[in-house]
Specification:
The chain has 222 residues and is of the alpha/beta class. The protein has 10 helices and 7 strands.
């Protein structure tokens, strides 16, 4: 069994959100139209990567802006690069115009606020699944064009990081030293140094402080 929308067959949807209650709300929104559609739930960036390897043929990804292991829009950038044909709707409690605009610029086909009611969520999902875009605001895009190039380049660079490098970068942001990172990840300090060097090279920065500052430019609180 599957979910059909205007002659489009929907077999599989991935929901990536670390809040079980909101994942359940999304399930309810889908069930109002669903006659049978596989729902894959993930709660972190790491599990998202794992599940997409097995379910890269999904019809839609509903992606939270703020999950464990996610640096702002880096998860969106990663999925866009790895699975360019996968439609993505971003979801977040941060529904400011700037956040939604950046989600659009980074490749999302829609945005749904976590404060939206079920009917609005249904409309957003159906709109994207039918091949259209769904954003709650009319944008003054020219106001964002200058920022867009810088943001796109940074998210591209962050998307190049390996999962382990993402973990190391997250710990650097917390102010942890190499010795502490090595202990927490159960790796050698030399390996941590190698990861830090690779992170700085990929982000095109000269030190840890610059890396943290650069990544903070693409972070939004979800």
């Amino acid at each position: 069994m599957n979910w059909s929308i205007e002659n489009i067959t929907i077999d599989k949807i991935v929901i990536a959100d670390d809040h079980p209650m909101f994942r359940n709300a999304l399930r309810q929104a889908l069930s109002l139209d669903m006659t049978g559609c596989q729902i894959i739930e993930v709660e972190s960036s790491e599990t998202l990567r794992q599940e997409l390897r097995d379910h890269h043929n999904a019809d839609l990804l509903i992606l939270d802006l703020n999950m464990p292991g996610v640096e702002g829009f880096s998860a969106l950038a990663y999925v866009q690069k790895k699975y360019p044909s996968l439609p993505i709707i971003m979801i977040s409690a941060n529904d400011k115009q700037e956040t939604i605009m950046h989600a659009k610029h980074f490749g999302a086909l829609g945005f749904v606020s976590k404060s939206a009611d079920i009917n609005d969520i249904r409309i957003g999902l159906k709109t994207v699944l039918e091949g259209n875009t769904y954003f709650p605001y009319q944008f003054n895009e020219s106001a964002f064009n200058t920022q867009e190039n810088s943001f796109n380049e940074t998210t591209r660079q962050v998307a190049e990081l390996t999962p382990q490098q993402h973990k190391v970068l997250s710990m650097i942001k917390q102010g942890l030293l190499n010795k502490q990172i090595a202990y927490d990840l159960n790796i050698s300090e030399a390996t941590v140094k190698a990861h830090v060097t690779a992170i700085m090279r990929k982000l095109e920065v000269n030190n840890r402080t610059q890396a943290v500052m650069k990544v903070s430019n693409i972070e939004m609180v979800g």
